[in-house]
């Protein structure tokens, strides 16, 4: 039987019995994707790495309590753990002085223009996502960046499907507004 | 901003913020099983029928422990009845000035009839 045929739920049961090989397989399957999710949610790679360590400590410690009768998907549970840890980190953060992305106006170097433009877009998005309420940004992250279905995202966030869709629509609308106005300002500054 | 433009922006952001895990992070995470102890399994049952199966062995064990405790506590040689304790408390040894022990149980202190006889002779 190939390793792909073993489900995450089988692995977590084996981890509950102290199987370190199963733990390694689960880490390989989920670390990269969830690290990206935590990095986008927090906007900080170092904090995201700490979150992932704590998340896998919880996997190891609580695996023996996994109840297959509840039919919970490991992916859903793990996203929920990572999301909650990211919220905790966000709450503990000291207020930071916001860096205005418009300070970094592109240089005259034509070869670097494209790279700088991409970086600036990325910074704009980061700033816009940070300005969204937690639930709206989480909904956008899960559905857009992580590729979860609306139903899965609703389960991760422990809200109804209607509520999730509402967060998603409002989040995207607000993003478009913020990015639209930022882009206009940027064009005025440059041009 | 239209929908397509927003999607382009989101794509750029996703590309810029999808780091691969560092070697140090991977090592730290893989070391967790060696450094962290696993929690013990203790699941509370969710159904009434499961509660019955959950409680019966535990209550039986608790009852057996209580009965055994009462039995051992009641029959132990170190446990004295109230009257035995009273007897010990009241047992006093009287000693005369010469150091002779006076015992209540040893019989009459003075043969009264003999004493009277001796007095009449004198």
Describe the structure.
The complex is a heterodimer of chains A (191) and B (122). Chain A has 191 residues and is mainly alpha-helical. Helices cover 72% and strands 0% of the residues of chain A. In chain B, 60% of the residues lie in helices and 3% in strands. In chain B, a hairpin with a 5-residue loop joins strand 1 and strand 2. The radius of gyration of chain B is 45 Å and the shape is elongated. Chain B starts with a helix and ends with a helix.
Q: Gist?
A:
The complex is a heterodimer of chains A (191) and B (122). Chain A has eight helices and no strands.
Question: Would you tell me the structural class of the helices and strands of chain A?
Answer: mainly alpha
Structural class of chain B: mainly alpha
Spell the H/E element sequence of chain A: HHHHHHHH
- Largest chain-chain contact? A-B, 46 and 34 residues
Major sheet of chain B: 2 strands, antiparallel
Largest sheet of chain A: none
Strands of chain B, count:
2
**Low-confidence runs of chain A:** 97-108
Radius of gyration of chain A: 20 Å
- Helix percentage of chain A: over 70%
Portion in beta strands of chain A: under 5%
Beta content of chain B: under 5%
Euclidean distance between termini CA atoms of chain A = 62 Å
Q: Tell the overall outline of chain A.
A: elongated
Q: For the largest sheet of chain B, list the strands in their spatial order.
A: 1-2
Low-confidence stretches of chain B: none
């Amino acid at each position: 039987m190939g390793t792909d045929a073993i489900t995450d739920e089988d692995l977590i049961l084996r981890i509950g019995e102290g199987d370190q090989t199963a733990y390694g397989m689960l880490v390989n399957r989920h670390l990269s994707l969830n690290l990206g999710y935590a990095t986008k949610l927090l906007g900080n790679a170092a904090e995201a790495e700490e979150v992932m360590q704590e998340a896998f400590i919880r996997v190891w410690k609580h695996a023996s309590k996994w109840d297959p009768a509840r039919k919970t998907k490991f992916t859903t549970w793990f996203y929920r753990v990572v999301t909650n840890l990211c919220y905790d980190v966000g709450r503990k953060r000291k207020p930071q002085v916001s860096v205005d992305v418009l300070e970094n106006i592109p240089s005259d170097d034509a070869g670097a223009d494209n790279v700088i433009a991409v970086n600036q877009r990325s910074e704009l998005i980061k700033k816009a996502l940070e300005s969204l309420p937690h639930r709206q940004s989480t909904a956008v992250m899960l559905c857009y960046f992580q590729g979860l279905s609306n139903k899965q995202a609703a389960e991760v966030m422990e809200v109804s499907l209607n509520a999730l869709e509402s967060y998603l629509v409002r989040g995207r609308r607000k993003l478009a507004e913020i990015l639209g106005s930022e882009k206009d300002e940027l064009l005025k500054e440059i041009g | 901003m239209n929908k397509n433009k927003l999607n382009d922006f989101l794509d750029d952001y996703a590309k810029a913020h999808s780091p691969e895990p560092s070697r140090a992070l991977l090592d730290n995470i893989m070391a967790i099983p060696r450094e962290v102890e696993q929690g013990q399994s203790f699941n509370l049952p969710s159904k009434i029928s499961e509660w019955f199966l959950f409680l019966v062995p535990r209550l039986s064990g608790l009852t057996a422990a209580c009965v055994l405790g009462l039995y051992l506590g009641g029959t132990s040689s170190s446990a004295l009845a109230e009257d035995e304790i009273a007897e010990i408390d009241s047992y006093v040894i009287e000693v005369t000035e010469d150091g002779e022990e006076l015992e209540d149980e040893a019989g009459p202190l003075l043969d009264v009839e003999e004493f009277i006889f001796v007095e009449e002779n004198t």
